[in-house]
Description:
The complex is a heterodimer of chains A (207) and B (314).
Chain A: H1 2-10, H2 30-35, E1 47-54, E2 63-65, E3 68-71, E4 75-76, H3 80-83, E5 97-101, H4 102-109, E6 131-134, E7 145-148, E8 151-158, H5 163-169, H6 174-177, E9 183-189, E10 191-193, E11 198-202
Parallel strand pairs in A: 5-6
Antiparallel strand pairs in A: 1-2, 1-6, 1-11, 3-4, 3-10, 5-9, 7-8, 7-11, 8-9
Chain B: E1 6-18, E2 21-27, E3 42-46, E4 52-56, E5 67-72, H1 80-87, E6 93-97, E7 110-116, H2 120-132, E8 137-143, H3 152-159, E9 163-167, E10 186-191, H4 194-206, E11 214-217, E12 232-236, E13 242-245, H5 251-257, E14 276-284, E15 298-299, E16 305-312
Parallel strand pairs in B: 7-8, 7-10, 8-9, 10-11, 12-16
Antiparallel strand pairs in B: 1-2, 1-6, 2-5, 3-4, 3-6, 12-13, 14-15, 14-16
Pfam families (chain B): Fer2 (PF00111)
InterPro entries (chain B): 2Fe-2S_ferredoxin-like_sf, 2Fe-2S_ferredoxin-type, 2Fe2S_fd_BS, Beta-grasp_dom_sf, FAD-bd_FR_type, FNR_nucleotide-bd, MRET, Riboflavin_synthase-like_b-brl
Keywords (chain B): 2Fe-2S, Flavoprotein, Iron, Iron-sulfur, Metal-binding, Oxidoreductase
Amino acid sequence: MRDDETRAGAYAEAPSPRPAPKMVEAFDHAAGSLARHVPGGATGFRGVLLHIHVAPAASYEMEELAEAECVAGRGIVGDRYHVGTGTYSPKPDTREVTLIEQEALDALSRNDPPLQRGPIALAPGDHRRNLTVRGVPLNHLVGRRFRVGEVILRGGRLNFPCKYLEELLGLPVYLPLYNRSGLNCGIERGGVIRPGDGIELLNDVPA
Amino acid sequence: MTARVVMKLKVVAARFSTPNVLHLRLVHPLRPELPPWEPGAHVDLRLPDGKIRQYSLCGDPDDLSAYEIAVKREDAGRGASIWAHQTLKPGAIAHVSAPRSNFAIQKASRHIFVVGGIGVTPALPMARRLAAEGADVLVHFCARSKAEAPLLADLREACGPRLRTWFTADGRRFSVSELEDYVEGACLYVCGPPRLLKAVQDAATARGWPEARLRSEAFQATLDENFKPEPFDATLASTGKTLHVPADRSLLEVLRDHGIVMPSSCELGVCGSCVCGYTEGVVIHRDAAIPVAERQHRIAPCVSRARVSVTLDL
């Protein structure tokens, strides 16, 4: 009880109201808008959501959530890109939700490919992406719609590793994450997601 | 310099080391181990209003289960210490960055520390490490009185006979005449208020100490009330783009306006987070982070400026 009071008095969890950060709608993004009209890619997969992480502000450690509210056009409630306090928030882009493949993290932990001295073990959330998924070919989903539980996401562009992450972690993750750093998405239909939710491809909607 | 992750740490112990110095022990609620650090390192404490203050880690770098910091209450300060004293009780959460080091043990045959008051915080783990390694170390610790000397018992335990205390209340005031002449291979570390730093630096220079063997830690950049900022232009080496920095804005702010996201922390010229390289121009250095030897090619854009123009290695 006292603990909570002290905490609330120390740091307000909800920052003062600020205008919604500028987001680029996923299918308006230079990458997503082009990819949308190019057929191909994996279909019929059935993946699963493993972890949900958010960070309250730039540089803050990611915190794992047992469920998360996704807001269409905005982001995950409690995340820095929903609030507009992310490192890259001043640059309008598609980053309402970011995803990464557990398979890519597994490869890093096996040092595959051996681009650095040895295996890199990233603790959950250290990659700073919001959703860790298994069985979802994220690189195929630029310009595609897919479902995570009740929420519908749109792939806007491939995520790109940043030197900032490397600095933050003190680990050489830039090169090994190249081309498997995940996917930046927009939220078409909001809702609540939980680890264990199924992930599957949806048909495109007419533009 | 590098960006560092910010963690929400829990206060597990808060005790007064002196009547106005609060000694805190902080643990991570989920991780058994905190990021490692070297003696002399500091962390950022983030305040609810977004301000950031630096505090040296004063605990044991071999014990990664907790960080320890000591916060001196500065009634005439900018409010951070008062907030910490009022808020950081056992059970409270403090937003703390991973450590960074601008002040590290140097390779030396003899290590001399001149420490004033709360400046003891970085010196304690450094002296403890050196003493444990059997290095030749001598610590001068200056304070108003024994009761007002923070972490005195810890420093005494670490240093034993290698500690010399100077308490003005006892009629023992440290004098720069205590400083010895420079001998090849020695290193002099100074940590304390700007006045002590300046006095020791001047005396050391007079006694033949070269710049490179003089290390200091300041948690307040040079204050020069007569400084009049002038506008200047900054050119980015990578693109050739030139940005105008008006007199009332910092170079860091202008870079940020143009989408060049620099890590930054204190924005006072102390922490060194935003330091970047420059290749041409006359820089007016106003920070306390960049050693003199590196001032020909590094600039702290939060406080430093240039005469007319500068080319940044960005």
